[in-house]
Amino acid sequence: MNMLYNSDSFAVVQFQIPGDAVVPEHSNLMRGGYEIVDKFARKEIYIEGALAESFKLGVQALIETSPSEDELDEYIGRFSALMQQPLVFH
């Protein structure tokens, strides 16, 4: 588990599955995924597979432009519409 991003609006955590758990026919997709938390809406989503790969590629492309925090939040905010899981603190 790696905290990749944490702003006033969002948090992004990466989860990775060890290499021995990779399914050969899907080896081109990242194993594991990302948990994205919208702090204001108090909702979260866990994405994996093709959606996680698309998220990663979008972030990598954005990073090449030296984005501001607002620009990163705007990109991550595109995934807020998918969030259905309410955020629960333990």
Note the topology.
Layout: E1 2-6, E2 10-16, E3 32-38, E4 43-48, H1 49-63, H2 69-77, E5 85-86
Antiparallel strand pairs: 1-2, 2-3, 3-4, 4-5
Fraction of helical residues: 25-40%
Largest sheet: 5 strands, antiparallel
Uncertain spans, ≥5 residues at pLDDT below 50?
A: none
Kindly report the spatial arrangement of strands forming the biggest sheet.
Answer: 1-2-3-4-5
**Radius of gyration, whole Å:** 14 Å
What's the number of extended β-strand segments? Answer: 5
Strand content: 25-35%
Q: Please, could you describe this protein's structure?
A:
A hairpin with a 4-residue loop joins β3 and β4. The longest helix has 15 residues. The protein is of the alpha+beta class. It has a five-stranded antiparallel sheet with strand order 1-2-3-4-5.
List the defining traits of the structure above.
about 90 residues; alpha+beta; five-stranded antiparallel beta sheet; about 25% helix
